[in-house]
Amino acid sequence: MSGHIPERVLLFLLGMASVCVAVVLQSRAQQSMHPQPHFKLPNTAGQKTFASTCAGCHGLDGRGGERAPDIARKREVQRLSDPEVMRIVREGVPGTGMPAFHSLASSEVKAVVSYLRSLQGTNQTVELPGSPVRGKAVFYGEAGCSACHMVAGSGGFIASDVSGYARTHSVQEIRSVITQPGQAADRQARSAVVVNRAGQQYSGRVRNEDNFSLQLQSLDGTFLFFLKSDIERLEYNSQPLMPSNYSSSLSPKDLDDLVSYLISSAKTSEPELAGEGDE
User: Fold this and answer.
1) Are 111 and 49 in contact (CB under 8 A)?
2) How far, in Å, CA of 171 to CA of 193, rounded?
3) Are the CB atoms for 92 and 99 separated by under 8 Å?
4) Helix (H, G, I), strand (E, B), or coil: what is residue 130?
5) Range 136-142 contact pairs with CB under 8 angstroms and sequence separation of 24 or more
6) pLDDT tens figures, 232-273
7) 146: helix, coil or strand?
8) How far is CA 40 from each of CA 15, 114, 138, rounded to the nearest angstrom?
9) Average pLDDT value for residue range 28-47
10) CA of 83: how far to CAs of 27, 99, 163, in Å?
11) What is the rounded CA–CA span in Å between residue 53 and residue 44?
């Protein structure tokens, strides 16, 4: 037989080739118009376990409800390390509505924590800005914070207890309140001197006051009660109790360490991962 291809066969083959090329070009055009998404699939295993064990109280999005608080957006929860969250899932939180999930396998607990991080919008816990150890030395030493403030039962009485302050404030908010305390308009944020009719002077912070009496807390934590009729003079310091020069007296490194210590101290107390509402 001759190697010559009949004209009608050749036309048929060319027509089929044209069709194939057209199909390929159309497919590529559709892929260009509708590209495949380039993102990681959600943690399906963690999502399923979260939905079956956690969502009933914390909600499918982790933002809480009537039975349990928000664990997706709360900074105190976001700052917990993965091992800390895993321990809470396994052991629960005594005295609250958070039960222990001993029936979950280790792999399931890890998957739940991973999925929780995705709900929080991060796969990593918030890193401390400095050294908590050095920050503790600054708190009790150079900065003199402990003369007025208390952390974990240690420190002064005249100012607020800052043990859990960092649980509800960001790193920037903590740094700002240290370096820019401002001129507080609230008299209770300033120290006062009470002079009675006998000429005796008492210094401290006014805690309560009405038309007939005044309660003063001295620097050692003692509460003193005065009748207004016995007070000769009451003077408030023009400056707030909080020093306003920390931005210059402390180095940026000292400030980072101090903030780190406050954050680390706030993590030592049990967070309210579950309970009666989101208080």
Assistant:
1) yes
2) 35
3) yes
4) coil
5) 136/261, 137/257, 138/250, 138/254, 138/257, 138/258, 138/261, 139/258, 139/261, 139/262, 142/250, 142/254
6) 999 988 777 788 899 999 999 999 999 999 988 887 654 444
7) helix
8) 43, 13, 43
9) 53
10) 48, 17, 22
11) 14
Decide if 240 contacts 205 (C-beta within 8 A).
no
> 272 is written with which tokens?
């309210």
What does the DSSP 8-state code read for residue 275?
A: S
Start-to-end CA distance of the chain, whole Å, equals 94
**φ and ψ at 110, to 5 degrees?**
-60, -40
Is the predicted pLDDT of residue 24 greater than 80, yes or no? no
Whether the CB-CB separation of 86 and 105 falls below 8 Å is answered with no
Counting Cα atoms < 13 Å in the Cβ hemisphere of 18 gives: 6
Q: CA separation (Å) from 210 to 207, 215, 217, 228? A: 11, 9, 15, 9
**What pLDDT is attached to residue 270?**
47
> Which residue in this structure is represented by tokens 């800052």?
162
Q: Residue 179's closest CA among 134, 244, 130?
A: 244
Chain segment 190-232, per-residue pLDDT in tens: 789 999 999 999 998 898 999 999 999 887 888 999 999 999 9
What are 156's two structure tokens?
């002064």
Residue 38 is encoded by which pair of tokens?
């380039």
Give pLDDT, residue 223. 92
